[in-house]
Specification:
Elements (H helix, E strand, L loop, with lengths): L2 H20 L11 H8 L3 H13 L4 E2 L5 E2 L5 H23 L4 H20 L2 H16 L5 H14 L12 H4 L2 H12 L2 H34 L3
Antiparallel strand pairs: 1-2
Helix pairs in contact: 1-3, 1-7, 2-3, 4-7, 4-10, 5-6, 5-9, 9-10
């Protein structure tokens, strides 16, 4: 195998694992098994091992005392802090996109929104999370700001696993798509300020419902592991 091919496999493994983090394919605290990931991606174990080490260095994954590599455990305060930063950056991306977005991108957003509605009706939360991610990044891609896009990706990689718990938060499902509809309408009008407000509202709704749920899970975990 040439050096270029090896580097490509390493990058492929890195991208697949990071995409999995963003899409909530892994849950908080999950230990990642190199051989299992290699088999899932159809590549050898060495690129996967090096990709995991790279993600540890970027603090997207955690090295445990036994040398295993895991998705960081749930932390309500961490999620709340990152959500505040995301609101600023993603709101800016939506505002920039409003003056640039074309009809093809708007049609795609409409299809994704319909898909999310259908996933909610069927109770298919995995599909909803994938479509939700695609919806958001279809908007941010229209901002014309690759560095901003990269920053948003990095933050999604940190909070993606928390989305596994989103539908465990009471009342989230009833509000899951409200802000999305408002965002699409704002983009159709070219209204950047309203598009930004829609993104902020979307993240605020998730945070308002998810943070108390995460706090309750943390409390239950502390109680379960406390000495008798």
């Amino acid at each position: 195998m040439s050096k270029i091919e090896y580097r490509t496999l390493n990058d492929l493994a890195y991208e697949r694992i990071r995409e999995g983090l963003m899409a909530a394919s892994f849950h908080p605290g999950q230990v990642l098994v190199i051989r299992t990931l290699a088999e899932a991606y159809g590549i050898s174990t060495t690129p996967v091992r090096e990709a995991l080490q790279r993600l540890v260095a970027e603090r997207l994954l955690q090295l445990l005392p036994n040398r295993s590599i895991a998705v960081p455990a749930l932390e309500a305060d961490k999620y709340a802090e990152i959500a505040r930063i995301r609101s600023e950056l993603e709101g800016l991306a939506a505002e920039l996109a409003a003056s640039r977005i074309g009809k093809a991108a708007l049609r795609r957003l409409g299809k994704l929104l319909a898909g999310m509605d259908d996933s909610l009706r069927r109770g298919d939360h995995d599909s909803y999370r994938r479509e939700n991610q695609a919806f958001h990044f279809a908007i941010y891609a229209e901002a014309g700001s690759p560095r901003l896009f990269q920053l948003i990706q990095d933050l999604w990689s940190q909070t993606g696993p928390y989305m596994k718990e989103l539908f465990g938060a009471p009342a989230y499902e009833a509000h899951a798509n409200e802000a999305h509809r408002a965002i699409v309408e704002a983009l159709e009008r070219g209204d950047g300020r309203s598009a930004r407000a829609g993104i902020v509202a979307d993240l605020a709704t998730a945070g308002r419902l998810l943070v108390p749920h995460l706090q309750a899970l943390e409390k239950a975990e502390r109680k379960a592991t406390a000495p008798a």
